[in-house]
Amino acid sequence: MTDPKKIMMARKKLLQAGKIASKALAFTCGLVKPSASLLDIVEAGETKIKELGAQPAFPINISMNHHAAHYTPSQEDDTTVPERALVKVDLGAHIDGYIADNALTVLVGNDEKLQTLVKAAEAGLQAAIHTIRAGLRVWNVSKAISEAMRKLKTRPIENLTGHSIEMFNLHAGISVPAVARSSERFASPRLKDHMVVAIEPFATYSQNPRVENLEPGHIFGFARSRNPGNAKLRSLFSQMKVKFAQLPFASRWMAELIPTDQISLTLNRLRKEGCIHNYPLLGLRDRSFIAQAEHTVIVERNGCIVTTKRHKK
User: Fold this and answer.
1) What is the C-alpha to C-alpha distance for residues 65 and 85, in angstroms, rounded to an integer?
2) Distance CA 239, CA 220 (A)
3) pTM, full prediction
4) 275 contacts 227 by C-beta, under 8 angstroms
5) Which CATH architecture best describes the domain 4-211+286-306?
6) What is the CA radius of gyration of the chain?
7) In Å, how far from its chain's centre is CA 57?
8) Cβ count within 10 A of residue 38
9) Do 215-280 and 4-211+286-306 fall under one CATH topology?
10) 215-280 domain in CATH 1.10.10.10?
11) pLDDT tens digits in sequence order for the chain, 313 residues long
């Protein structure tokens, strides 16, 4: 994008989305307390995004303890927050497709080692923000993240990365790892002026800090080039693409379009036809706890602008 007017318009909407995402995140994290329903928390958070003037860019992720990402409750989920937990709240908002993505980890209970994980994820995030500038290779950002986290004797999750963002595209192609591999030092992509990037380091004490697909989740994404063969299903699928802006959606959101007893069957049919895909729950097999922190930034020549700068509730 080189048109100054388009750049200014995009930046305005990115900043608006970022402010809303930040406020909604603070609100949602404030609901995380022992015995609180995960379903109630995420539904309240998603409602708050809409009340503030945006739309959810994806279902709120509320991943606990050794789960890293992609946990959002189904409509029947009765899971509650335990007395001791690391609860990662990952929330995104968009305005006309301009997306802001941010996350915080809430420590439930008093545990110094778990608090250090929260601090490590935040330290990695801040190190990245202070390093980022246009023209810099991603490898340098990864190095800053890794070094900051290791100073606190924690390990970054190796196979979860930050990501570039484009209009209506949450994962736009460029990844920002939390580890800096020597083979990537001069091969990693360079950050460009006006690029939008979500930085999200995850911290753990695990000796094997690589997440795996643990089980199918309740978040789905669109396969943009596929449509169902059945006419009735094709009509519903068209409604879904409009309703959810072709961004990731939750199975529970389908209740706005069809009866709840038809949701599972419908999603299975669409998945089998290759129209949608499931985002599996990601976590550590050894059940080590994980903390996460995330901001979205706009890259500039001399640094970056944090669109999701923390705001009060």
Assistant:
1) 6
2) 15
3) 0.94
4) yes
5) Alpha-Beta Complex (3.90)
6) 19
7) 9
8) 22
9) no
10) yes
11) 567 888 899 999 999 999 999 999 999 999 999 999 999 999 999 999 999 999 999 999 999 999 999 999 999 999 999 999 999 999 999 999 999 999 999 999 999 999 999 999 999 999 999 999 999 999 999 999 999 999 999 999 999 999 999 999 999 989 999 999 999 999 999 999 999 999 999 999 999 999 999 999 999 999 877 789 889 999 999 999 999 999 999 999 999 999 999 999 999 999 999 999 999 999 999 999 999 999 999 999 999 999 999 865 4
Please answer whether residues 86 and 114 qualify as being in contact, where contact means their C-beta atoms are separated by less than 8 angstroms: yes
Burial of 30 (0-12, 13-18, 19+ CB in 10 A): middle
Residues acting as catalytic residues: 90, 101, 163, 171, 200, 294
Looking at residue 240, its amino acid is: M
Q: How far is CA 213 from the centre of its chain?
A: 16
Domain assignments of the chain as residue spans, ordered by start: 4-211+286-306, 215-280
Q: Is 287 left (phi over 0), alpha (psi -120 to 50) or beta?
A: left
